[in-house]
Design a protein that fits this description.
The chain is α+β, with helices and mostly antiparallel strands. The chain is built from 6 helices and 12 strands. It has a 7-stranded antiparallel beta sheet with strand order 5-6-11-10-9-7-8.
């Protein structure tokens, strides 16, 4: 019942203009509870932040693929690595992906806790020493791993490169020269699978609770974040 006691909402691929009726609406309470209680798919374990659709259009699995992000301002394509890691290795892999960014970085906190508002908020902090940032993030591991309404991005504008740990608990790296990041993923036995699909590419459900909302405010304060990005 733990997952059911939390607020949850259906989210579709972000590029779609509108979400169709949810398949979760057709389930009875027992079916819903059973589905949301499943965290393990083969050797892959989800965090508490998100669950896939009942029909499992995308079965959660470990791996990464190469992708491209179109920067409309510069009109250039930016190389991207998108990765999914099992819960037991997820946060440590994220922390190691931060190392190649350098000694001083910027941070963006993403929140969609105010689910009555459209979209989400991005909160920005410039120029924080990497050891200080990583120490703070370790203190908030539970929030960052298990809250489906909290995401974080760490970037070095001088490179420019960015590592994102999003609300779906995907690991996403943007920028050129991503070989070091591929080595980190390889060290964690996260294989390259350029044909893989991610949980974001089908219906899924996010989870949060009041405690995580309070922890998010504490994290924001520890990072010295006040203004919107």
């Amino acid at each position: 019942m733990g997952f059911l006691k939390k607020f949850f909402r259906n989210v579709y691929h972000e590029e779609l203009p509108a979400a169709p009726a949810s398949s979760f609406e057709t389930l009875n309470e027992d079916q819903l509870e059973a589905h949301l209680g499943v965290a393990r798919y083969g050797s892959f374990t989800l965090s508490d932040a998100v669950r896939p659709s009942y029909a499992l259009e995308v079965v959660p699995s470990c791996g990464y693929r190469h992708d491209t992000y179109r920067d409309e301002q510069s009109k250039k394509n930016v190389p991207v690595l998108m990765a999914a890691a099992s819960r037991e290795q997820l946060f440590e892999a994220f922390m190691e992906l931060l190392d190649p960014l350098g000694p001083v970085v910027d941070v963006v906190l993403e929140t969609s806790h105010d689910y009555n508002a459209s979209g989400h908020q991005d909160l920005y902090r410039e120029h924080i020493d990497m050891p200080i940032l990583q120490s703070i993030l370790w203190d908030f591991e539970d929030l960052l791993v298990n809250d489906g309404c909290t995401g974080i991005a760490v970037l070095n504008p001088a490179t420019p490169q960015e590592v994102q740990f999003d609300e779906h608990k995907l690991l996403i790296v943007y920028g050129k020269e991503l070989t070091k990041y591929e080595h980190v993923l390889g060290d964690w036995n996260i294989p390259c699978r350029d044909d893989m699909r991610f949980i974001t590419e089908a219906e899924h459900v996010h989870s949060t609770n009041d405690e995580y909302i309070q922890q998010f405010e504490q994290l924001k304060m520890r990072l010295g974040i006040e203004s919107e990005y």
